[in-house]
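Readers outside the structure-tokenisation community will struggle with the description of the input data as it stands. I therefore recommend that a typical entry be quoted early in the introduction. An entry of this sort, consisting of the sequence and the corresponding backbone structure tokens, reads as follows:
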Amino acid sequence: MREFLSVERLDPTKRLVVERTKDFKEIYEVFSTNDATSQSDRCIQCGDPYCLNKCPLHNYIPQWLKAVSEKDLEFAFKLSNEPSPFPEVMGRVCPHDRLCEGDCTLNDGHGAITIGSVETHINEEGFKAGFKPDFPGIITDKKVAVIGSGPAGLSAATYLLRSGIAVTMYEKADRAGGLLTYGIPNFKLDKKIVERRVKLLQEAGLELVLNCEVGKDITFEEIANNHDAMFIGIGATKAKNAKIAGEKAPNVYAAMDYLTNIQKKNFNAAYDKKFDFKDLNVVVIGGGDTAMDCLRTAKREGAKSVTCLYRRDEHNMPGSKKEYKNAVEEGVDFAFQVSPKEIIVNDSGKAIAVEVIKTSLGVKDASGRQRMEELKGSEYRVNADVIIMSLGFDPVVPSFLAENGIETNSWGGIIINDETHETTTSGVFAGGDCFRGADLVVTAAYDGREAARSIVESLLN
């Protein structure tokens, strides 16, 4: 350990741009054993590890780095899977630069340990070696329903099943995974990774009910009457709009609609062919990770040009730095400090351009972000054949919530007890984006885990 003076930070190898933009395969290669070991050897084993504390799940990062350094893969696998429901997913999609790696002590002049890549290595090599997370089987007479199979729902199911509680999961889509399946492109997360975790849960006793929308195909009351508790993890998929003229034009699309349809296409399933953007000029409005996913997807789909419009500068982009870097490498154009004022439409009502105005950034406001001001007289147009709006998401509020006493706040988020994750209806718990608003996979996983622990305590103690 502590080889940071002689071994530099190593990022995982990426496939060449000319190759990776031709398909949707993952762009990062999994660390070899030698690379994972050498990176783990750099850890200085802090007495108060910042990486662990910054991780929402409080993963045992120094401990499994030490195990990898000592070539104890089985122990590293067990440590990795204890506080995390799907660490091989987190190793791929977490914004490590803002979380564990961002707080690594070695950032002070030496470069953070490549924690996410080691995490992926541990689990991929562990699965190859035949290791599996431990589940006791269904050993209680308790049953819990989980509504939604996204990160929060899968996490809740994981920790309920670890306690021997039977879980029935209701998912309105044709595949489990929610955002992991239909919202994150394959080049970041191969869907076989998600399918493997779901299969493990099914082997542990999960009953998965697909193509079943609560409130439509089955009533909330019917589920409640047949289970001892419930967890709601229905995410946040309602697209925010810019509230500008022209945004309802037929060729202005919501980011998640686009990503979902292209993923269906990659599954060789039926999809809406209006989302085929080959040889078109595509403009994406927004600067988060979902915007980066749309931009990079459009490049792979053969768009003539792909341009991102963002109202602040590169430094203030909410998305991961590595995703922005990957988009630049793949040929995406970026226009910073421009704010959309209007979608220009032609006589038939079709969008043909975005009218933008340049912005300047001034002093920081109470939130810590620089104030943005528009520069009068700086307007210009960005031509577009199609426009994708990626401005964030709000929770969808199904009618069964209010009908069953489950209260929501002013923007549709489910109100929960901060300590227990229980909603305003006894025995019903919630977490993830339907509570937080659009957030990270890792925070949704945290909510599911903590809610499951509260459910276990309420049912078994």
